[in-house]
Amino acid sequence: MKPIGHVRSPLAGKEQIPTGAGARHEAEGVLEVLPELEAGLTDLEGFSHLYVIWAFDRAEGFDLLTTTPLDALPHGVFSTRSPRRPNPIALTVVRLLRRDGCRLHVRGLDMLDGTPILDLKPYLSSVPADELRRGWMTEAEARAGQASEPKTGAGQ
Amino acid sequence: MKPIGHVRSPLAGKEQIPTGAGARHEAEGVLEVLPELEAGLTDLEGFSHLYVIWAFDRAEGFDLLTTTPLDALPHGVFSTRSPRRPNPIALTVVRLLRRDGCRLHVRGLDMLDGTPILDLKPYLSSVPADELRRGWMTEAEARAGQASEPKTGAGQ
User: Fold this and answer.
1) Higher pLDDT, B152 or B50
2) Chain B: residue nearest A35 by CA?
3) In the Cβ-directed half-sphere of B97, how many Cα atoms lie within 13 Å?
4) Is B130 within 8 Å of chain A by CB?
């Protein structure tokens, strides 16, 4: 796996990433794809949202049980978005604002400046809200006094 | 990157994977996670849908411009789900039917039997249908005489 590009994000440090119940990811920035891969972005501008698959390049090791900013209970790492996972792969849905050549201007970043991008894919369809269950996260948000509806918008 | 498990799928060969306009992925099967990682699945059963990040282990090389079963026009690889991409990473949303220890019974498989799984994540929220644009795919479906609404359900 080699980076296909890097994220230019206003988030310079972990403490700047919104976390916890009701956190919203509205940061705007640029996905800078390597110039030699620019042809691979052809037609991407027709899509409103993209999947960004990226590497947790500042995480080391993993925990099978982990706690998150949502509550104090341990949860299985695969039922969380923790960076400390067996393969340090991350997934974010962003809104594509515009494309300038190999630069994709997007909203909804939750990754740090300089993060390596592994892949980009078009976001094609959504799971209907009435079919979605969010397990322990709904319970944790309810305890924290937040609405338990799925968050909408670009950040996930 | 090492597999965290493998897919047990009824799809034995590429020709069995539904493709083209209106294709639906309803295949059921099992995500077999390595027994030593079972604790990482704790609480996963509370989620209705999962992201499965997996490897296109039978793809070699990549094309920056590619055609798909949807139409005869070339598109940038990052605006398609083609397996021949710079990093051979795939993403599928599946519905979680039930968990038996380290075996996850799911619906919505579009990967072949034996496919290596790289990561699992909870599906947390959807992009609202009225915010979603699907670019060249909508146009291709319209030409093929299919409805251009986003497909719903587990398969993407």
Assistant:
1) B50
2) B64
3) 13
4) no
The verdict on a CB contact (< 8 Å) between A86 and B131 is no
Distance from the A15 Cα atom to the nearest Cα atom in chain B, whole angstroms: 22
Question: What residue segments make up the domains of chain A, in order of their start?
Answer: 5-143
What is the CATH T-level fold of the domain B5-143, as seen in this structure? Elongation Factor Tu (Ef-tu); domain 3 (2.40.30)
CA distances from A10 to A13, A50, A137, B56 (A): 9, 19, 27, 33
pLDDT tens string B70-127: 999 999 999 999 999 999 999 999 999 999 999 999 999 999 999 999 999 999 989 9
Confidence of residue B153 (pLDDT cuts 50, 70, 90): very low
| B 6-35 residues with CB < 8 A to A | 33
User: CB–CB of A78 and B47 under 8 A?
Assistant: no
Tokens of A76: 């299985």
What is the separation, in whole angstroms, between the first and last Cα of chain B? Answer: 24
Of the listed ranges A93-97, A150-154, B16-20, B139-143, the least confidently predicted one is: A150-154
How far B31 CA lies from chain A's nearest CA (Å)? 13
DSSP A2-58: --SEEEE-S--SGGGS--STT----EEEEEEE-GGGGGGGTTGGGBSEEEEEEE-TT
pLDDT at residue B146, as a whole number: 64
Residue A72 CA to residue A31 CA, distance in Å, equals 34
Return the number of other C-beta atoms located less than 10 Å from residue B100's C-beta. 9
Q: A127 and B154: CB-CB below 8 Å?
A: yes
- Stretches in chain A below the pLDDT threshold 50: 148-156
Q: Which residue bears the tokens 């397996």?
A: B83
Report the distance separating Cα A56 and Cα A84, nearest Å.
8
B150 to chain A, any CB pair closer than 8 A? The answer is: yes
